Amino acid sequence: MTTACDENVIQLKPISSCRREVEVAMVEMLVSLQKRGWSAAELALTLADASEDLVMLIATKKLRPN
Fold first, then answer.
1. Structural domain count of the chain
2. Which domain of life is it from (predicted)?
3. Segments forming the whole domain that contains residue 50
4. Whole-angstrom Cα distance, residue 53 to residue 45?
């Protein structure tokens, strides 16, 4: 479940199937990489950077004329 706060009201929303599958795959990948010697902190920062790069790439592609 995720939460959304609007002033004093908190709404609980179910996590999408896509997000659930991504989280499972991500945890499996992170466990595998930690076994190869990478720290959890380094992996988290790298994953965040890579995710941001992907979001920017997608946004840029959508803004370009065909």
1. 1
2. Bacteria
3. 34-60
4. 12
Distance (Å, rounded) from C-alpha 60 to C-alpha 52?
Answer: 12
Rounded CA separation 31/42 (Å): 13
User: pLDDT tens, 32-46?
Assistant: 999 999 999 999 999
Mean of pLDDT values over 37-62? 91
Degrees to nearest 5, angle at CA 20 with 19 and 24: 115
In a domain, 48, yes or no: yes
pTM: 0.63
Q: Structure tokens of 49?
A: 């950077």
Of 10 and 3, the structure prediction assigns the larger pLDDT to 10
| Backbone dihedral region for residue 7 (phi beyond 0: left; psi -120 to 50: alpha; all else: beta) | left
**DSSP class of 65:** -
